[in-house]
Amino acid sequence: MKFKLLVTFGCILFVIKVTANTPNQQLELSNISTTEIINTDSLIQSVFSKSNSNPTPKIEIPVKSDSIKENKPNNALLKKTSDELSVSTYDTVAPFYMPINITPVKVDSFLLLGNPFFIELVFKGLPFKFNWETSTDYRTLYYGSKAKTLSEGAFKTINKENADQIIMDLRRDAREQITRKAAYLYVFTFDQLPDPEANRNHYIENKFNRKIHFVNDNDFNPYRRKLIVHGEQLGPWQHKANAMAQFSQNYVSPNWYQGGNSNLSVLGILSGQLTYDNKKYIQWENYAEWRMGFNTVAGDSLRMLSTNDDIFKINSKLGIKAGGNFFYSGSVDFSTQFFNSYNGINSTVMKTSFLTPVRLNIGVGLDYKYKKIFSMMLAPISYKYIFVSNYLNVNPNLFGIKTGDTYLSEVGSSFKAILCYPLSKEIQLNSNLSFYTNYQKIEVDWEMVCNMTINRFMSTRISFNPRYDNTVIETDGSKARMQFKQLLSVGFSHKFY
What we know:
- By secondary structure, the protein is α+β, with helices and mostly antiparallel strands.
- The chain has 4 domains: 1-29; 32-102, no CATH class; 111-125 and 169-193, no CATH class; 238-254 and 262-496, Porin (Beta Barrel), CATH 2.40.160.
- It contains 7 helices and 19 strands.
- Strands 5-6-7-8-9-12-13-14-15-16-17-19 form a 12-stranded antiparallel beta barrel. Strands 1-2 form a two-stranded antiparallel sheet. A two-stranded parallel ribbon has the order 3-4.
- β16 and β17 form a beta hairpin.
- The chain is elongated and about 155 Å long.
- The termini are far apart.
- Mean pLDDT is 78; it is low at 22-38, 50-74 and 76-92.
């Protein structure tokens, strides 16, 4: 009974509240004398107009003031053109103001000029944002989102970005879009760019020259040799050459109280180098050398001069950059002899002759280069060819060729390491190590040369050449042994550029 009375009393209060609000609303509507209609086209025109000082406002159309329920239109007012209608300055419902003075945002000009899309694109790699130190958040797994503190839920931080940050974000988004859909637009990768440390400004450390000699321009000496300064070679092609004539001599008279023998040794070297480097993808190195050395040996009645060094070789290597300091390379090595050489003093056993032997090695593999100092090439596929023209006087077994044959042709693998390191301004160390195997036998040759400059015209050369070759066919059953050749000479030297 009490519940029914409570429900009835609530319904009565609701009806009283509804009937009390309805007359007030009708009264408010009846007091409106005119209806202000906002002209949307005029408002849009005012937004895009050139002059913001005179915005185009709304149009007022008066209606009958006795009741808002009157729906009959006033034909006299509708006949008025839009030019005759009165224009109000402000919107009484929602005022609209157009900004007149906009403050320009200052942006660094170097940021705009340094746009990476104005030059060739460089691929910087994919971002790596993996966090190794992760911890399981059980609240996130349970609620589906990260839990927030009371301050984080009540106050939301507003991140206000500046113009520089907006420009960088736009460039980053554009680069990510190119990476996903147009990766062919990239020209370089980041590791292909030159090292900035090579072009960095640095101090030149040198000892102060205290011996300064001032020359009078009036003192002219026509016999004084002028210093020739060679210009720097520009372009991808670089070339240089060197000529050396070195010797060692010893004379002992027949009546010398201690006895002894006279001897003379002469060494001549002609070498040249031609390289091509376009600083991007291709490097082509060509090197040629001809060494010829002769000496006199006491007690040799058959020959006045004996050959102690004779080789003509041409090396060529072409590399296409694979990435970083690695190149896909192919090399060709050619070498031969021009003069006869014999086994020893008063010996008629010939070891080499004209174009005997002719060696050719071709290898294809991967080459690692460190600046212009070191090069190491590994050729999994290598071809070796040896030809003997004078097989009647020279034993082919010395070069691994079977008796009755004139050539050797086989496939194996090779390895070559070249080092050109200046120990000082006057000392240059060159090392050339080559290794070849046919998976049964090996051939190793290591040539080390140290050139020491005395002055502009004279130099000293020390060479050491160990060699091991078990591809030689020994008919007496003996095993291959280590071979050595060493030479020290002093003489003239001249460089050509």
